[in-house]
Amino acid sequence: MPLFSLRNVIFKNIIHYPDLEIPEGCVTFICGESGCGKSTLLKLLNGVISADGGEILYANKSIEKYDPITLRREVLLCGQFPFLFNENIQENFVEYRKYRDLPEVSREKVHTYLKICAADFPLDTPCITMSGGERQRVFTAICLSFHPNVLLLDEPTSALDDVTANVMMKGIRTFCQEENITLIVASHNKVLAESYADYTISLAGGSR
Q1: What pLDDT does 13 receive?
Q2: Strands 150-154 and 75-78
Q3: CA 68: distance to chain centroid?
Q4: Lower Cβ count inside 10 Å, N or C end of the chain?
Q5: Structural domains of the chain, with CATH
Q6: 71, 63 in Cβ contact below 8 A?
């Protein structure tokens, strides 16, 4: 049984998605050129936005029937432009985990999460001084610390060179496999998809 199923899904009468299924416990890449609906699909999967037609099932149940907060904690979206507090990296981990009523993790564990995401910066680094790509990687590390059921990554390597992109994707894939987290990645990078995806969904401009 697939983890997600989409049937006749339409968004704003602009994007018409093909019927598709996403398996549980695997790495699925959603590929396609800019404007084909990759980022929108991720937002539909965790209920940030709602479809204007069709049906989306999560664990064989319509996502419309889930409590929105519960759904977004189970199906966690890490976007391209995440919010971080102006404090340092360690303090951002503390604040985000406090918001979810989760205990603090050790500094050693924070370093582990950061290293997985190719973001092994000093923990006292003020996040306000970091580039957009660095902030995205730090936020992804924070998301890993939540251990969600599903992790959605939106263009996680778009600001990275090839070497760093591969280090990051290898680390995240390994972590998700070990923790039984379903990983869904929206990316225009077909080379990364070929290297790290168990399944690939290709969206074309014709789906608009």
Answers
A1: 85
A2: parallel
A3: 17
A4: N
A5: 4-207 (3.40.50.300)
A6: yes
